[in-house]
Specification:
The structure holds two protein chains of two kinds.
Chain A: E1 6-7, E2 11-16, H1 20-26, H2 29-32, E3 36-41, H3 47-54, E4 57-60, H4 69-86, E5 90-95, H5 97-108, E6 112-116, H6 127-132, E7 138-141, H7 144-149, E8 154-155
Parallel strand pairs in A: 2-3, 2-5, 3-4, 5-6, 6-7, 7-8
Chain B: E1 2-5, H1 13-24, E2 32-35, E3 46-48, H2 53-62, E4 65-69, H3 72-80, E5 85-88, H4 101-111, E6 116-117, H5 124-131, H6 144-158, E7 159-160
Parallel strand pairs in B: 1-2, 1-4, 2-3, 4-5, 5-6
The chains are: A alpha/beta, B alpha/beta.
């Protein structure tokens, strides 16, 4: 007896800091547009544009990086609240710090993680990328030398 | 019009001051408009702290050339609008960035002729003059292969049964 395989629409958390990370995430639109999506970004000035263009919920959690531990903790709490409410199947992220946090949280909640490291990181994976790589389900770098030197990373050309 | 932009996240006074000084010295005759992210306020050019996505795109479309930090958002916007762009990388040693990835970005894209790069403020006036004559080499990357890979991964996750 044959088994029927069907597809369901995933709920995808799209996590990218405003600026270049978000620009690169938008270049992946064709990959995620068939699914239900919501965005977690950092700055408020992109919220209106994303809401109008993609008719998706957008959360702005503020900027953070590893030099500001209190901001990282604040961002962690905000992302945790959002992900507990939304329960995404997958996080797709191009970075940066909050993308790393969302990836970790989604994995702990039983979801999958797709990490596309920013083209800006040409010598090695970003710090966030290095943290996420061991547990990412798909980890992509935009530089062939990085893929050659970091196990479990794939190279498929560049987004820009 | 020349658009100066420092990106969405942090001020970049070293760049804004250098461009402002060049404008004051008459290096540029065009109108110059700067987005400064809350930093040092120029005296020789009009400025604003932030631009939402639509206003930023409109300014990019209107600009004859762009001067900015070497952030990927700025660079991508310039490439997509086919505008010549001059970048100055933020540097870790000045507390402008957490690492020197912008220096690598600036050097890599400049080496391939896609943009001009000024690594220090002393280079800015000369590079602004070069920017006004600069025709960038076109990028051919499209992202299609990455999109295909991510799409097929998501499809495999969505298959049940």
């Amino acid at each position: 007896m044959s088994r029927t395989v069907t597809s369901r629409r995933l709920k995808i958390c799209l996590a990218a800091s405003s600026g270049g990370h978000l620009s690169q995430l938008m270049k992946l639109e064709e990959a995620w547009q068939a699914h239900e999506t919501f965005f977690i970004t950092t700055g408020k000035m992109v919220v209106k544009h994303i809401t109008e263009r993609h008719q998706a919920r957008v959360y702005a959690v503020g900027e953070s990086n590893h030099n500001h531990p209190f901001k990282v903790i604040r961002t962690f709490v905000r992302c945790l609240m959002i992900l507990l409410r939304e329960r995404p199947d997958v996080v797709v992220s191009t970075g940066a710090a909050h993308g790393c946090i969302c990836s970790l949280l989604c994995k702990l909640m039983g979801g999958k993680v797709v990490w596309v490291d920013s083209i800006a990181n040409m010598k090695r994976l970003s710090l966030s990328g290095r943290i996420v790589r061991p547990f990412a389900d798909l980890c992509i770098t935009q530089w062939p030398d990085i893929s050659a030197n970091f196990r479990h990373t794939e190279y498929h050309g560049q987004l820009i | 019009m020349i658009l100066v932009t420092v990106g969405t996240q942090f001020a970049f006074d070293r760049l804004v001051k250098a461009v402002d000084a060049a404008v004051g010295a008459g290096v540029v005759c065009d109108e110059v408009f700067a987005q400064i992210a809350g930093g040092w306020r120029p005296v020789n050019m009009a400025w604003v702290d932030s631009l939402d996505s639509e206003k930023f795109s409109a300014h990019v479309a209107e600009a004859d050339a762009i001067i900015g930090h070497a952030g990927i958002g700025t660079i991508l916007a310039a490439f997509e609008a086919r505008k010549p762009v001059l970048v100055m990388p933020r540097m870790k040693r000045y507390g402008e960035a957490v690492n020197d990835h912008q220096v690598a970005t600036a050097r890599e894209f400049a080496a391939r002729g896609h943009l001009l790069a000024a690594l220090g403020t002393e280079e800015v006036p000369e590079m602004i003059k070069a920017l006004l004559e600069f025709t960038p080499a076109k990028r051919t990357a499209s992202g299609a292969t990455i999109v295909t890979r991510v799409k097929s991964f998501l499809e495999s996750v969505s298959r049940v049964g």
